[in-house]
Amino acid sequence: METPDLQIKRIVLDRMERCSVCHHSFVAEDIHVISRKSDMWMMVVECSECQGRNFVAAVLNDGDPTEAQLALRRLSESGVKDHLPNATSTPALPKVSVDDVLDIHEFLGDFDGDFHRLFAQG
């Protein structure tokens, strides 16, 4: 017999088969339960290939869908790093400068679109 965790994860997997970014197939291990109440579970589905994240609320029994939408909005605004196991903060990258934009503009002006050749040079 399946545990409630696995049952909920299977339902989520039935509705979200693939990552919307890279189309990698999700598996149960990609789903992280971050909050569990009697009427609503909050989850993050994280792609193991591209690390794209989707917030999911499973409304159970007589749960309030409007409350779930508000909870998802709060979660997406606050971020999820504190809720995920093994989450690490990424170092801040330098901001894109005006010179960076001009450099890429000049590069693209002469670029023929051959990415294979471009990356083979590296």
In short:
The chain has about 120 residues and is an alpha+beta fold. About 40% of the residues lie in helices and about 15% in strands. It has helices at about 5-15, 65-80, 100-110, 115-120; strands at about 30-35, 40-45, 55-60.
Query: How would the global form be characterised?
Result: elongated
Taken as a percent bin, the fraction of beta residues is: 15-25%
**Whole-number average pLDDT?**
82
Count the DSSP helices: 4
Question: Are there runs of 5+ residues with pLDDT below 50, and where?
Answer: none
Briefly note the structural class of the backbone.
alpha+beta
N- and C-termini, Cα separation: 53 Å
Total number of beta strands: 3
What layout of secondary structure does this protein have?
Blueprint: H1 4-15, E1 31-36, E2 40-46, E3 53-59, H2 65-78, H3 98-110, H4 115-121
Antiparallel strand pairs: 1-2, 2-3
Description:
With 122 residues, the chain is an alpha+beta fold. The chain has a domain at 4-78. 38% of the residues lie in helices and 16% in strands. The chain contains four helices and three strands; from the N terminus they run H-E-E-E-H-H-H. It has helices at residues 4-15, 65-78, 98-110, 115-121, and strands at residues 31-36, 40-46, 53-59. Strands 1-2-3 form a three-stranded antiparallel sheet, with helices on both faces. Strand 2 (40-46) and strand 3 (53-59) form a beta hairpin. It starts with a helix and ends with a helix. 7% of the residues are buried.
